[in-house]
User: What shape does this take?
Amino acid sequence: MNKTDQHSYPLRDPSQVRLATMATVHCLVGCGLGEVVGVVIGVSLGLTMVVTLVLGVVLGFVFGFALGIMPLLRASFSMKWAAKQVLVAEGLSIAVMETAEVLVEVYTPGVMAAGLSSPLFWAGMLLALTAGFVAAFPVNYILVGMGIKHHHQAPM
Assistant: This one.
């Protein structure tokens, strides 16, 4: 039987789906944590929406990059090599995830104006992280399929 289901849609390689899912979760932990920390800092300090979002994006990239580079450095790769690998493998995924998160934060009414104690603020953050995951998954799926993104496991 060929790799199709009853509706004749080709099945994806389960290992590619699994690796793409792991890569997207990995990105969500780093980028998402940085994004939320940046927005929480910005809202806490009463910064403007633009400054708050820029802070969230910058911290999203920093946290995502740091989370990607740490396993490579622990595996004794040079900083230069590890940074290049993470920039190539993570850069596009982080950019797509951050873009989706910011769009949700900006276009969900009241989220950026809500205080930290508001359920609306936290619901907006959850919605933004979900949108980031959904947006970044196809990017990671393609990168895994191209053999670019698989260093979340043991580097080879």
